[in-house]
Each structure stands twice: as C-alpha cells, then as structure tokens.
Write a structure and sequence with these properties.
The protein has 361 residues and is mostly helical. It is built from 11 helices and 2 strands. Strands 1-2 form a two-stranded antiparallel sheet. Helix 1 packs antiparallel against helix 5 and helix 7 packs antiparallel against helix 8.
C-alpha cells in the first residue's frame, strides 16, 4: 500500500508541475501577443500590407517573433529559479523522477545565449517561409492594418509560448531536434532565396559567397550551429559518475565535438571568396574530426546500442563512397558536400539523443 500511495503522490506532483509549466507558458505567450500587437500598430496603421516581401506582414512578424523568442527562451531558463544552465531545473525534477535527468548546475551563460539565439532565428525563418507559402497561395492579396496587427500579435505570442516551453523542458534529447531543425531551416532558406537559381552547378559554398540575404542566412546558420555544437559538447560528454577507465575516451569525444562545432563555424565565418585556405581547411578538418569521433565513441559510450555504432560506420562509408564518386566525376561537388553535411548532422543528432537517453539512467 505504501508503494501505491507513493506512486500516486508522484503522479499528482508530475501533473501539478506540468500544469504549472503550461500556465506559465500561457502567461508568457499572452504577454508577448500584447507586446507584438502594440509594437506593430505604428508600422501597420493606415496601410494595406503584402503578405510577404519587403515591408510585409510576415517580415515584421518574423523579426518581432525572433526578438521576443530570444527573450522567451531566457525567461524559460530563469523560470526554474536556478542558474542560467541549458538543462536541469525545477520543472525537470518532479516531471522526470524517478528516472531523473542529470541536472547541470554550473553557470553556462554562453551556452544559454547561443541556444536562445538559435530559437530566435528558427522563429524568424519559420515565419518568413510560411509567409512566402501563403503569398503564393493568395496571389496579390493584401492585409488590412487591423487584421495585420492581430495576426502579428498571434505569431509573436505563439512563438513565445512554444519557445518558453522548449527552454523550460530543454535537455539533450530536445536540443538534438532544435539543432537539426535550425540547420535545416537555415540552409533551406538560403537555397530558396539565392540570387542565382543555378548556384548548385558550382558548390554548396557558393551560397555564402554573395552579398545577399541568402549568403547572410547561410553563413549565420553555419556559425550559430557550430557554436551550438561546441557549447553542448560538455553536456553530451558529462563526466559525472563515469567509470575512470571511460573518462579518457569521453574526453577525446568532447574534444572532437568542440572541434566539429568550431570548424563548422569557421566554414561560415570564412566564406570561400574571403579565404579559400581557411574555408577548405575548416571543412576538411570537420570531416576528419567526425571520422575520429565515429571510431572513438564506442569506448566513450559503451552502454549505447550496437545499432548506433553500426550506423556510424555505415554513414562513414557513405561519405567515403560519395568522395570516390566525386573524384571519378560521377558526382558534382555540390552533391558530395550535401551528402557529407547531411550525414554528419544526422549522426550528431542521433548521438545527442543516445547520449541523452544514457544520461537518464
């Protein structure tokens, strides 16, 4: 009977914590909706706005949602009333018991800012893409000022609501999704907005070589995604309670993750037309670090399923095969770069999820 009563008490605590979090998210979203609507009035008053493009409804909503989204993420971390750490906190403890996630209590302001920036950029790109789709569906349509104000407020409020919940429940499992969505949105937006529709005839790096919004989006995506990877390397290779025999391997994996992040940021920081040596060196170095990581991770994470290690070997083989196809002239450089990039990000996403699952034990 005591065990049944204890489990019932735990369920009540979990439900109360979940409802408390949802209530806080609603308040944050409602406040953001009001702020977004009020801020849009001076821009929309007396005008009929296009759905997409310069000076449009989607452009304003995207920028406002991005700014408010960054603030909502930081508020979501502070909601725990703990240090500014990317994971752990009040909401995690009741909701995740008895299989609690490892709480990381060391201050990590840089990590929080980088992840918050990623959430803000996702909000910007998401609303811009949605606006472009709606503009194609409603050709030559305009939106009156009052309707635009309401829609902008709703977009900002919804973004703040979702991002606040993401921040309050953040862990390695969710962060892997954020990283994948951020990279996909950024690269896709850069491709769709490229001034030269035939950029793919050259190489993937051509997206970052022009003075356009497309190049800015492409390079900024690589820089922020790289900083995110470098920032979370410490948490993906947590040494708390680790067998001393495993520590050296886990530290090697941490170094590889940090190198991959910094080198990825270097690819965006040094476009091909700025420095060919630094750009190509960063790209090749990233692939080398990834190759080492695939073969070192078994010792660092021995509890991972065998399918995870097999996946790494297969994906490494895919990169090698793509390189052979490029050398023999079967693939163009763009296809080889896309395959390598997708493979690396796919494996890193799975690694973060496996590492997060292992940390729950």
């Amino acid at each position: 009977m005591t065990g049944v009563r204890q489990r019932s008490t735990e369920r009540v605590a979990v439900r109360a914590a979940a409802l408390d979090l949802e209530g806080s998210a609603i308040v944050v979203g409602a406040a953001a909706l009001v702020v977004g609507a009020i801020a849009s009035l001076p821009f929309f008053w007396g005008r009929s706005l296009p759905i997409a493009g310069p000076g449009s409804l989607s452009q304003f909503a995207a920028l406002a949602a991005g700014v408010v989204g960054i603030a909502a993420y930081i508020v979501g971390r502070l909601w725990h009333r703990d240090a500014l750490t990317p994971f752990g906190g009040r909401a995690d403890r009741p909701a995740e018991a008895p299989a609690a996630r490892r709480s990381l209590t060391r201050p990590a302001l840089f990590d929080t800012v980088v992840i918050a920036l990623a959430h803000g950029i996702i909000a910007v790109l998401g609303w811009l893409v949605l606006g472009a789709i709606l503009a194609d569906g409603f050709q030559d349509a305009t939106v009156y000022a009052l309707s635009a104000t309401v829609l902008a407020g709703v977009a900002v409020g919804f973004s703040a609501y979702v991002i606040f919940l993401s921040a309050a429940r953040m862990d390695l499992m969710r962060l892997s999704t954020v990283l994948a969505v951020f990279a996909a949105f950024g690269i896709l937006a850069a491709m769709l907005s490229a001034p030269d529709p035939h950029w793919w005839e050259f190489h993937l790096s051509a997206l970052g070589m022009t003075r356009s919004v497309s190049s800015l989006t492409f390079n900024l995506t690589l820089i922020v995604a790289g900083l995110m990877m470098a920032a979370i390397a410490r948490y993906a290779t947590d040494l708390t309670g680790v067998d001393p025999a495993v520590r050296p391997a886990r530290l090697r994996v941490r170094v590889c993750l940090i190198l991959i992040g910094l080198l990825l940021a270097g690819v965006g920081l040094f476009p091909l037309n700025v420095s060919q040596i630094l750009h190509n060196g960063s790209a090749v170095g990233m692939l080398i670090a990834f190759s080492l990581l695939v073969f070192w991770v078994r010792r660092a994470l021995p509890e991972a399923p065998r399918s995870f290690f097999l996946l790494g070997y297969v994906l490494f083989g895919v990169i090698v095969l793509a390189a052979v196809f490029f050398v023999t002239g079967y693939y163009v450089l763009t296809a080889t770069e896309l395959i390598a990039g997708v493979v690396v990000f796919a494996w890193l996403t799975v690694f973060l999820r496996v590492s997060g699952a292992a940390a729950r034990g």
